[in-house]
Amino acid sequence: MAHVELSLSEVFVPTARASSEPESDNVGQWSSTVSRADEPCLLIDAATRVVAISSAGCELLCLGDPAGLVGRPLLDGGLRLLDFTANRNVLTEAEVDKIPPLLALTSGRLARGLIRVQAASPDSSDATVDAISTPVLADGDVAGSLTFFSEV
Q1: Cα separations (Å) of 137 from 26, 49, 108?
Q2: Domains of the chain by range and CATH?
Q3: Each residue's pLDDT tens digit in the chain (152 positions)?
């Protein structure tokens, strides 16, 4: 049997860097990362406006060109959310508030769930995606949410 020894020393705690930008520092840093990402991801601000979305995210969510979405409210960008019934009904406002990107904003906590997105063309099938969202903080307050998607 292998023998493993573990020793603990003083914990290194990094010092916080002073930000030259108010409030938008975390959102701004994530914005460039999300817009260049190969993975499907989305960054929205506290007012639910799209700050950045990856090309893969646009493709998976049937949203078209990322540049056309930036600055627009998430739900005004053509995102059509459906329920999981056979009738494929559009989600009600109360149900939409529970999708992970919005739930992370309101709860200030991680959120995860499945989302059904209506296909852009009638010939295509609807997309079901697993969404994992985390709030993005600035000065201790929720300034946005970052979401990663995976096709189911």
Answers
A1: 7, 16, 9
A2: 25-151 (3.30.450.20)
A3: 566 666 566 655 555 554 444 444 688 889 999 999 999 999 999 999 999 999 999 999 988 889 889 999 998 877 899 999 999 999 999 999 999 999 999 999 999 999 999 987 777 788 999 999 999 999 889 999 999 999 99
